[in-house]
Design goal:
Elements: E1 10-15, H1 19-23, H2 26-34, E2 38-43, E3 60-63, H3 67-76, E4 83-86, H4 93-102, E5 106-110, E6 120-124, H5 131-136, E7 175-178, H6 194-207, E8 212-215, H7 225-229, E9 236-238, H8 245-254, E10 257-261, H9 264-271, E11 275-279, H10 285-288, E12 298-301, H11 331-334, H12 338-349
Parallel strand pairs: 1-2, 1-4, 2-3, 4-5, 5-6, 7-8, 7-10, 8-9, 10-11, 11-12
Helix pairs in contact: 3-4, 6-12
Length: about 350
């Protein structure tokens, strides 16, 4: 393979989103690395996502926390990059200006109405591409952006977490990680009712005493701590709000698998080659899930309701509500019974 010159091989990838959406860049980053580009990831986000991207995937990591610091970074690196990749979450005039200052060309995911600017290489939104494939489309044609192997999502060193000191698991029992809320606890259309989680986890703990069930989450989910601690099972640990992103990474790496929702921790578990069991509500499992690509290891459960999925940045189902936050009953989640989930979890993980 003939390499471009050093200057032409310098690529910037802007990440503006949360943990899960950041990990959906992994297939693109792996392809850029395979082509021996020099990759700078610019994390323009309040989340600590950068800790998951090691030198095997990214050459340089840059964290910017404000519009001013983003512009200052761009000014210090005037025309440094040959291309600047931005997906659908990287919107706004400040982002466009920063990209124009520090790169020679911008490649960005665009809807038809956003096709403006001569310096931008437009990559159209493709309806049947998943979000990870849409990111890969920034580099490839539509036909070459289809992901056919789950390996594309694996981090370069997926066993790294096993070598980390684990300060939370001391008994040595095999364990699952569970997340009972998603979207920083602000997306009820993703979240299975907490009373259902209490029924499920109580039954899992009581039935499978030779396993531990570790409930994780961020500080926005602390309101649920008392509920799960009140179950009183020694094999249930509640670590909500007590871990960093890196510590959750280590926990996921040492676990049997993930039980939960469409969340960043689900994507982390997949990147670490762990089995997952995911309840999908209003979000689209074809855009964000892994059940179609690898149904043996990644089980997705949904309710058979005609109005879902209504939460999507492209082609949402608006037959019932135009905004998933306005749903009167979140029936796509409330109709999923704890007994069914328990049976499916047992089957999926071979308990």
């Amino acid at each position: 393979m003939k390499l471009l010159t050093g200057k032409k091989r310098k690529i910037a990838v802007l990440i503006t989103s949360g943990l899960g959406d950041s990990l959906l860049f992994v297939p693109l980053l792996k392809e850029l690395k395979r082509k021996q580009f020099n990759i700078t990831c610019i994390f323009y986000t309040k989340h600590d996502n950068d800790c998951l991207f090691d030198p095997g995937l990214v050459d340089t990591k840059v964290s910017v926390t404000s519009r001013f610091s983003l512009l200052m970074y761009a000014a210090r690196n005037f025309r440094h990059f040959s291309n600047f990749y931005i997906n659908q979450f990287g919107k706004g005039s400040i982002i466009r200006l920063a990209a124009q200052v520090c790169s020679r060309r911008i490649t960005q995911t665009c809807h038809n109405e956003e096709n403006k600017g001569s310096s931008k290489r437009k990559k159209q939104v493709i309806d049947d591409l998943s979000d990870a494939e849409q990111n890969l489309h920034l580099l490839y044609s539509e036909s070459n952006s289809k992901i056919k192997n789950i390996n594309s999502f694996y981090l370069p060193d997926p066993q790294a977490g096993h070598r980390a000191q684990n300060n939370f698991i001391k008994e040595g029992l095999p364990y699952f990680i569970i997340q009972v809320s998603s979207g920083n606890n602000t997306t009820p259309f993703k979240n299975w009712p907490i009373p259902n989680w209490l029924i499920l986890i109580e039954k899992l703990c009581r039935t499978y005493t030779n396993y531990e069930f570790i409930i994780v989450g961020d500080s926005t989910e602390k309101i649920y701590i008392q509920d799960f601690e009140s179950l009183g099972h020694l094999n249930c640990k509640v670590l909500i709000g007590k871990t960093t992103v890196k510590e959750i990474f280590d926990l996921a790496a040492g676990s049997i698998g993930y039980i939960g929702l469409d969340s960043g921790i689900m994507h982390m578990a997949v990147a670490l080659q762990k089995k997952t069991f995911t309840i999908f509500g209003a979000s689209n499992e074809k855009l964000y899930g892994y059940g179609v690509l690898d149904p043996v290891n990644h089980k997705v459960i949904t309710s058979n309701i005609r109005c879902r999925p209504c939460s999507s940045w492209k082609n949402p189902n608006t037959s019932r509500v135009s905004n998933p936050m306005l749903c009167p009953d979140f029936a796509c989640l409330s109709l999923i019974e704890p007994g069914l989930v328990f049976e499916q979890v047992t089957l999926h993980f071979g308990l």
